[in-house]
Amino acid sequence: MGTILLEGMEFFSFHGCFKEEQIIGTKFIADLTVEVDTDVAERSDSLHDTADYVGLYRCVKREMEQKSHLLEHVARRIMDAIRQQFPSITAIDLKIAKLNPPMGGKMHQVSFMTHWKK
After folding, report:
1. Is the pTM of this model over 0.90?
2. Which has the closest alpha carbon to 118: 6, 37, 31, 32?
3. What is the pLDDT of residues 65-96, one digit of tens each?
4. Catalytic residue among 27, 98, 117, 118
5. Rounded to whole angstroms, how far apart are CA atoms 59 and 82?
6. Domain 2-117 belongs in CATH node 3.30.1130.10
7. CB-facing half-sphere around the CA of 5: CA atoms within 13 A
């Protein structure tokens, strides 16, 4: 079993409950951790025997490009897409952070974290 991490993926997206957020957009940072059986890949040195980093990134990117009101909804779509494309993955941890949220005060970010295990 191995762990693959994609850390600090940056996206400019239009997620939020306020109309302005859906028009103006803001920066988001996503961190993804997946567990997958890497035993065969460790011996074969073949990309086909593991979860492809590029494919994982594309799943996240595709879902981040679709507007949502809630980070929870975006995260669910990302996790569903990853599970569908990579059935060998046994666990997923995902964190999505919205930078400079419109909270009426100075705040670096708000985040949503979720976990799934087979």
Report:
1. yes
2. 37
3. 999 999 999 999 999 999 999 999 999 999 99
4. 98
5. 6
6. yes
7. 4
